C-alpha cells in the first residue's frame, strides 16, 4: 500500500516555498512540498534516514499572519526525487505546542 493510502490526515500543497530548518544543527534542510495537521513532506538535498527524530522550524502564513512553527518530527521514509541530488522525506509530527498545532490546523485545512 502506498504512503498516500496509509495517510490518516489529508495534506495540502504549499503554494509558496516554505523553508524548513533543522533547529539542532541550525541549518536549512529543504522546503515543504505538502503539509497536514500531523505531518509534512519535505524536499531537500540530503537523504534523511527513516526513524530519525528532528527538531524542525518553518514559518507558515494564514490569512496574512505569518507565524514560526517549531515541531518535533520523525522521518517515516525517504526516497529520491525526480530531480538529481534531491530527496523527498515524509515526516510525522510527534511534538508540537498547542498554539502551533491550532495554527497549523488552520493552514492544513485551506
How many β-strands, per DSSP? 7
Helix content: 10-25%
| Structural class category | mainly beta
Shape: globular
In round numbers, the mean pLDDT is 89
Largest sheet: 6 strands, antiparallel, barrel
Spans with pLDDT under 50 lasting ≥5 residues? 1-5
What is the H-and-E element order? HEEEEEEEH
The fraction of residues in strands falls at over 45%
* Largest beta sheet: strand ordering: 2-3-4-7-6-5
Q: Count of helical segments?
A: 2
Radius of gyration, in Å, reads: 13 Å
Task: Describe the protein in words.
The radius of gyration is 13 Å and the shape is globular. The relative contact order is 0.23. It is built from two helices and seven strands. 13% of the residues lie in helices and 52% in strands. A six-stranded antiparallel beta barrel has the order 2-3-4-7-6-5. It is mainly beta.
Amino acid at each position: 500500500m502506498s504512503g498516500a493510502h496509509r495517510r490518516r490526515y489529508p495534506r495540502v500543497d504549499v503554494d509558496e516555498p516554505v523553508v524548513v530548518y533543522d533547529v539542532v544543527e541550525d541549518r536549512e534542510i529543504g522546503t515543504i512540498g505538502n503539509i497536514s495537521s500531523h505531518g509534512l513532506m519535505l524536499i531537500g538535498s540530503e537523504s534523511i534516514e527513516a526513524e530519525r527524530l528532528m527538531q524542525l522550524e518553518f514559518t507558515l502564513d494564514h490569512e496574512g499572519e505569518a507565524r514560526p512553527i517549531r515541531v518535533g518530527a520523525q522521518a517515516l521514509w525517504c526516497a529520491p526525487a525526480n530531480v538529481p541530488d534531491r530527496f523527498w522525506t515524509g515526516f510525522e509530527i510527534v511534538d508540537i505546542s498547542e498554539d502551533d498545532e491550532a495554527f497549523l490546523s488552520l493552514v492544513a485545512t485551506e
